[in-house]
Every structure is written in C-alpha cells, then in structure tokens.
Amino acid sequence: MNMIGGSQTHPQECSIAYLWWKIDCTVGAVAGQLASAWQRVRFPYGATLCVIHKLLFRVWVSCICELVLIANNGIGAVKCMRSVRRWSYEMFKNERAVRFVVMVTPEDLKANAEYIKMADHYVPVPGGSNNNNYANVELIVDIAIRTQVQAVWAGWGHASENPKLPELLHRAGVVFIGPPEKAMWALGDKIASSIVAQTAEIPTLPWSGSELKAEYNSKKIKISSELFARGCVTTPEEGLQAAQKIGFPVMIKASEGGGGKGIRKVENPDDFNSAFRQVQAEVPGSPIFVMKLAKSARHLEVQLLADQYGNAISLFGRDCSIQRRHQKIIEEAPAAIAKPDVFIEMEKAAVRLAKMVGYVSAGTVEYLYEPATGAYYFLELNPRLQVEHPCTEMVADVNLPAAQLQIAMGLPLYHIKDIRLLYGESPWGLSQIEFDEPKQRPSPWGHVIAARITSENPDEGFKPSSGTVQELNFRSSKNVWGYFSVAASGGLHEFADSQFGHCFSWGETREQARENLVIALKELSIRGDFRTTVEYLITLLETGAFQNNDIDTAWLDALIAERMQSEKPDIMLGVICGSILIADAYITANFQEFKSALEKGQIQGSSALSNCVEVELIHSGSKYKVSATKSGPTSYFLAMNGSFKEMEVHKLTDGGMLLSIDGASFTTYLRDEVDKYRIVIGNQTVVFDKEKDPSKLRAPSAGKLINTLVEDGGHVDKGQPYAEIEVMKMVMTLAAPESGKVTWILRPGAVLDMGAMIGTLELDDPSLVTTATPYKGQFPIEDNNQLSEKLNHAHNKYKA
C-alpha cells in the first residue's frame, strides 16, 4: 500500500482502462460474432470478459472509474472494498482492477484499523471528530483532486448525506457514487422528503409540516425555502407549540441526523426543552421538526436502486424494528410481517418517489407499518447505502456497492448482470427490461437475519466504550458470514462508531435463519477492553416474542427499561473464578516487582512474596469475602465462611486461565476496570463491583465533556442529570449517584479518559449511602452425580 501525496498515479496494465483499450481494439474483430453471447476473449494475465458485456460497457459507460476514494472508515470502507473486488474478479479476473484510496486519521492508524490494510493507497488526514476528516466535504474534494481519483464513495454516515459533496465533486469533474445533489436534498432531508411524500399522496404521520405540498409538474419538483421553513421548528417554544397541536408523545428530529443521532422521544411537555437542546447538540445547525410518535409500529424499509436514465426498481424489503436509542440492532429481509399486497403498494410508492426527483444509485425508503390495520406511513428516505444492505444482497443476490459503481459509470440497470439475472434474463443480453411490468416478477430467496456487533454495555443501558481488542474469532459457515472493522491487536478509538462488526444468517425460513445466527453468535469470541452486545443479542433472538415475530419498535427499549439481561454464569462460579483470577494477578504482580527489585540490588520484605490474597467481590448488594491461597504451581485453595474449595489451574498464553472446578473445566479471563471487575467465563460475562465512592463523579467512558447541567457549587438530587458527555458520536447524560453539592474539576470541551474525575459531590447525608451486605453463605458442595443424572434422564426419555 502506498501513501499518496500530490503525484500522479498511472494505470496498471491490467486495470480497467487497459481492458477498455483492448475492448476498443477488439470490437471490429468480434462484431460478426455477436450471435454467440457466451464467446469469450482472452486478455493478458488471464483477464476474461464476455464479448457482449464488453460491448455493453463500451456503448454505455460514460466514464471509467478505476481509482476510487473511499470517504469513510470502519466497516463501511471494509464492505465497499470487499464487494467491489469480488465484482472486479468476476468481471475481469483481477480483483485489483479497481483501486482504492482511503483517508486515515492518527486514531485509526493507532487502532490498527482493518480498512487501512486493505487499501491500495492512503492519505493522512487530521484526527479528532469527523468534522475534521470523514465529514469534511472540502477536505474530501481536495483529496479527490490531488490524488486524481475518478470517483468518490461515501458509504453511510459522515458526509454521505451532505448534498454539498456531490455538488463540489461535480464541479471538480469527479464522479460521486450516489445520487445527484438536488435529489439528495429533496429526498435525503427528512423535512423535504416528507413534503415530497405528501406531494406524491403517500401517507405520513402528523408532524410540524403536515399538509405541506411542493410544486410539481410531472417533470420537476420545487420546494421553496419558505415552504421548507414552514415544516421546521426553530426554538423550544415553537417546537412545544407544534407538539401540543400534534399531541404527545412526539419525536423531536434533526433533519440531518441519522444513526440514532438527533432524535428524542418526548412523553410530556416538561421534558420537551431539554430533549430539544440535546437534538441541537447532536446535530449542530440542522433544521429540526416534530413528529407524532407511532406506537406498536414496525420499522419497514424498501431498498431502491436507480440509474441515470429514469429506471428505478425495488429490491424487496427489510424489517428493522428492533432498535435501541433509535439505532437498529437486528435486521431482517424480507419484511415478512407485512401483507404482500400492502408491501407491493409500499414498493411502488418508493419507486414513484425516486422517479419524481430523478434519484440515482442506491437508497432506502423507510416506513412505519401497523400490523393490526395494514396502514403504513412514510418516515424518510436515506439517500445512501444502508449498513444493513447485505440483508438485501443475500435475498436478491445483487452486489449493491458494485451496482452503485456501475451506475456511476453510466450503465443502465438492465445492463447490470445481477439485475438481469434477478429478472430472469440472460446475464449478457442486450434487451431492455420493462421493470414496471416485467415478464418475471422477482421474489426474494429465503430469509436473512442480521445482528450488529457494537462496543456497548447492555447491562448499563448500552453505554458505548472504546479500547483494544485482544481476540476476535468468528467462525463462518455456508449460511452465516460476517465482517469486522477490527482484528486481534486492533482497537476502537473514542471518535469511532460503536459498531465494529455485522453478522448475517441465511435460512430457507425465518426460524432456520434465527437458529443459524444464534449458533454463530455463541461461537463468536471477542475479548477486549470493552463490553459487546453479543450475549444480549443471543438472549433477544431466543425470546418467545422474537421467535413469534411479535415485536415493534418499542419492544427493545421496554426490555431495557425492565433491565432484562443476557444469560449470566452461576454467581458462585463467578465468585470462584473471579477470586482466583484477581488473586493470581496480585501474586504475579508482586513477584515481578520483587524480582525487578532484586535485579536492581534491592531487597524487599518477605510479605511481597505472600501467596495468600484477601479478595472482596460485590454483586447485587452482597459482598463476597474470599481468602485465596496459591497452594502449588497449578493449584489454588479458597476459603469463605468456613467452607473450602481446592482446584487445579493452568495459565493460558493469551492471559486467561483454565480452571478445573468440581469435575468441570472453564476458560476464564479478567478485566480490571475503574470501578468493577469483569469476569468472562466461556461465552458469558459476570461483573463484580468494587467499593464505590459516590462523592467522586467519574466519566464512565472515554469521550468529551459537552455540557455541565449544574452550576459550580450548585445542588443536585439523586438521579438528577448533572452533565452530558459525547461517547463514540452519541450524547450520554450522567445522573447524580446521591444528593449533594457539585464542585467541577473539568470544564466543557475537556477530553475524558475512562474513569476521569469530572467533579466531586459533597453529600447531603453521607449516612444514606448504602453499603454491600456481607455474604454469609458457603461454597456449594461438589455434586459429581449431577451430570450423570442429567444424561440418564435424557437417555431414559428418548428410550421410552
């Protein structure tokens, strides 16, 4: 991989440009052989292309894109390169026919991000928040010009929905792999798209711009600035007035938000002002609108694909109803919950919208759907590729990033191989396809369920966090695959997206897809500084509600409010494993310190070599006091309240320990955090608290202090918000652990490490602080017959 500065890069001999030249030289020689659609021409280095398809490229391609800038990072950049390289090999027998330039921040470089290693060239860019790099339109355009790329792919997030990007790239003579700026604004902006939907007579929920319609003359649609402003609310007072007219509960939305940012649910007028300010803070400068909250609804999507010649099609639907903080966590395709005739209406409406504004490339129309009535409401159109697009790829067998690239180069939909196959046509044919009335209407193949892997702690309201990855092992199968933005020895920084992986499972039925995904997630091994959602995802997929497809957009938030947790190890097993891990870490550290002192000629006291450690673990208000003694090179002896346990231990080279307890073996790992111990036993996690000091207000994650909600020296009640911090592009509100007077140590704008002291709290009544109650029980008695009894029971059951 090369770093690009300002020098020109030259096409390789087997690049697309070279193949195009060979096509031109060959056209005359093969013109008389067009009747044989499967004849092939051999080129250097084994590159082959069907003659017919080569001629289609020669006729239809308006520009050649062999060097592409990816204005993105993380899994977006990884997916783009994987998909286009697959297409390049299928078409040219050269996966590097299209080369990629990537932008690299110091943080991504330090985190050893996977996309950097995959790229052909990289350009260093400033670090920090994405306004300095991946969302900086001027910087992206400047890099595109300096590196002389033919096209830019923005993916999702960052600058992908900023109409200024395609506009400036067009002026610079660089192709944007996506919609033109006018279509992006008309359908990408949530306010404008709702007005367009109302103009197209598509149902919408009551909102601050209800009944507004644009000027449309069947060829051109116009939304004036005055009309747009009528749909916006500019102040909390104006927004509250609109909300009261619509009726609570409502949603406050930033029109330029996305991915869970710039959206808040408000149940009553008292909470409106603070929620409005949070939306403003998450998407600065964005217009804001208010919309009625739909209860018991499903979030359904229609995947669009449109070319530069007015053709637009639907590639079936997706169900993305399982969300937390308005961010999707599990997705499915197709949208099986919808009535077939109703969903056909939704698809036709989506295609109508795309054609109305001259939309080009991939896009997604989002609807709210009420299963009880079959009613649907337009929500928004995302003028970009969605994170969950592989769900559609797997049921439609269409490579979407590759299709985007071909459309950007000028190919019509009916000359894209995957689309022709989907509609039952010869892949190399010349015929046009009547997409509105096709000879063969496409249907989805099987069912797909996808799960997003994020660096969030489900036990603490999905709090995001960052850090390094020690191990990542995903076992793919014929029906399950996944991709990740990090690998072992890599990591996630505080400016990264919390999603670092995506797993997809296919089955002939929804239940088969569910079972395949559960098995894959149980085999997924991720060990790092941060918690992940893997265990929680397994629990969700195994609930009766999910299996029966009886869910809605509020389902997961309700489970979180009820503090539903993933399956945990037996608490006493956690105490045993935790005690040994903590004691061994302490004994090992003391020995290393003693050894280091000896090497320096210093002699420490014999207490430094003590092999006995007193361990305290707090869980659910109980304090477990365990005396752990290293009784041999591979053995430990534990004592608690007059009961004893002796077990064999073996250290693993990756820092873990293999424990043999009561005839069973367990692989365990310890993570010593600021205020807790995290113990991983197999594929399950148990967390023990340390003694907490509520007078110290600490940052729960690395990030940035955005705002203090209490004056210095001001008073807060227990549970009252006292500060807002930004963690991995999300705003988190911190609540006071007890009542008292706040004294600030840090000011807004400060960069935070995990555990950093933000301020102190002078408690109103220190005596009210609850302490853990000593556990008075004992270790369980070993039961060697338990397993044999279970096996005998199963044997007798099936024998009968």
Write the layout of secondary structure elements.
Elements: E1 2-3, H1 16-30, E2 40-42, E3 48-50, H2 51-60, E4 67-70, H3 74-92, E5 99-104, H4 106-110, H5 114-118, E6 121-124, H6 137-147, E7 151-153, H7 164-171, E8 175-176, H8 181-188, H9 190-199, E9 215-216, E10 221-222, H10 225-230, H11 236-246, E11 250-258, E12 261-266, H12 272-282, E13 288-292, E14 298-306, E15 312-324, E16 327-333, H13 340-357, E17 361-370, E18 375-382, H14 389-396, H15 400-408, H16 417-422, E19 447-454, E20 456-457, E21 463-464, E22 467-473, E23 480-484, E24 491-492, E25 499-507, H17 510-523, E26 525-528, H18 534-541, H19 544-547, H20 555-561, H21 571-599, E27 612-619, E28 622-632, E29 635-640, E30 643-651, E31 657-661, E32 664-672, E33 676-681, E34 684-689, E35 696-698, E36 703-708, E37 715-716, E38 721-727, E39 730-735, E40 740-744, E41 751-752, E42 757-763, E43 773-774, H22 785-799
Parallel strand pairs: 1-6, 4-5, 4-7, 5-6, 7-8, 28-43
Antiparallel strand pairs: 2-3, 9-10, 11-12, 11-13, 14-15, 14-17, 15-16, 16-19, 17-18, 19-25, 20-21, 22-24, 22-26, 23-25, 27-28, 28-29, 29-30, 30-31, 31-32, 32-33, 33-34, 35-42, 36-38, 36-41, 37-40, 38-39, 40-42
